[in-house]
Amino acid sequence: MSSVIRINACVYSRKGYERESNTNSFYMNGKFTSEEHIDNLQASMENRGTEYLFSLADNMDCSDDDNDTHISIIKEISRYHEKITVNGGDVKFKIKELETKISDISRLITSILEMNRVPAEDPRRGIGFGGILISDGQFVAATAGNCRIFMMRDGMFRPLAAETSRAKRMLDALIRSDETVEDGDVTLPDEDPDSLVVVSDIYDVAEGDSFLICSDGLIQALGEEKIEDILSLRSDSAYIASRMVEEAMKRSSSGDLTAMVVQVERRYEGSPSRRTTARSKQVKNRVERLNKAPAITYKYNRKRGGRYQGTLYVVLVLVTLAVLFGIIYIIINSMINTGRETTKPDPEPTVTVTPTSTPVSTPDPVITPEPTEEPSLAETPTPDPSSDGEIRTHTVVQGDTISKIARTYYGSSDYGAKLCEYNGISDPNKIVIGQKIKIPPKEMLP
Predict the structure, then answer these.
(1) What is the pLDDT of residues 254-311, one digit of tens each?
(2) Counting Cβ atoms within 10 Å, is residue 5 exposed (0-12), middle (13-18) or buried (19+)?
(3) 330-344 residue pLDDT tens
(4) What is the pLDDT of residue 207?
(5) What is the pTM (predicted TM-score) of this model?
(6) Counting CB atoms within 10 angstroms of each CB, which of 29, 45, 318, 351 has the fewest?
């Protein structure tokens, strides 16, 4: 027969007075773990299963820097729990494995402390361990050092895996054997005389059972009577654990305060064959449902993907055509503008005043090869602004110079400097197209 058990568990841990750090570590069925140096913490869990492991350790994390060695009790317990979960076995075999592992770790830590010459009164010497293993409707407890385990069943309070329970078991063994031997020679069945761990008997789990795994600091602060009063309360595990730690903090103690309370809420009886058959049926139904589901092929993916790909291709083609047409338009427009600028004729000089007679081209008297006795150059037939006394305006066009303008209106380029001075032009070579130049009569030139 196999039993499914519903568990309600909670742990409270607080750093003790005048302590540098909290040296207590706990393990709650692999769901919650905590190594040392966490000053104040709380964890709780509710679960339904066939196997549980709860443990509490004190000063069982040790490091040796010289030999590059680090010992972590929580990591070792986690490996042990994983091993027994995979390999299986009965409760006696599993607790024997735990007893061997805790004894080896305790000896290793003690040897490291002795090599480092740690005094006997040092708090690091206070090694302790307490654990409860629940498997297939049975439980067994194991303690080592200063950690303690208590049980409450039907209002009866009793310690588990303690020296007192071990002594009682010794007496029972002597009574059954009807022999008289020395205390030092008494060996219980299946007991290792060199083991540092005390293992309790194997008991059946009952609904309403409550277990307490506590540190040495909590025992010193409260005592067994106060612990019995609080553990007998009809409350959940969280309230009982917190109440114990709060009461212990009101009193003086030399160690860290940790209380782990485990309560058995329900026990469900079941047959292994039935459970295996039901589980196999569930697996079979899942496989059948998966087989009936249509296979995922490229047909569906291709249909959906092709729709998006076609839209993407259309968008890319439209964008490409728009870019090409834009480039072609820019090139053609640039070519048209360039041709217009090339074929544009040079504008002729224009005069903004009233029209006058077109000047007649005559030989320039300045470049006449032979001087004559004829009248002065002012009488040449070139257009003379002084004939009507008006000031004309000349608009500079392409190819105009001051000398050319002076020859046009005064018949000689000698008037170019005076024309620049009259119009305030400092540099005759810097006239621009469209510039307005006033043409006064010769008499008004400076």
Answers:
(1) 788 999 999 999 998 765 445 555 666 676 666 566 555 555 444 444 455 556 678 8
(2) buried
(3) 999 988 888 776 665
(4) 92
(5) 0.56
(6) 318
What single letter denotes the amino acid at residue 79?
A: R
Q: Where are the domains of the chain?
A: 2-274, 365-444
Give 68: exposed, middle or buried? Use CB within 10 Å, 0-12, 13-18, 19+. exposed
Give me the CATH topology for the region 2-274.
Phosphatase 2c; domain 1 (3.60.40)
* Spatial contact of 141 and 199, defined as CB atoms under 8 Å apart: yes
Q: For residue 357, what pLDDT is reported?
A: 44
Find how far residue 437's CA is from the centre of its chain.
Answer: 79
Q: Nearest 5 degrees, angle CA 122-CA 97-CA 2?
A: 125
pLDDT given for residue 195 in this prediction: 75
DSSP per-residue string spanning 198-247? EE---EE--TT-EEEEE-HHHHHHHHHHHHHHHHTSSS-HHHHHHHHHHH
Q: Any idea which fold 365-444 has? A: Membrane-bound Lytic Murein Transglycosylase D; Chain A (3.10.350)
Nearest 10 degrees: CA dihedral of 153, 156, 161, 167?
-150
Q: Which position has the token pair 């001087």? A: 371
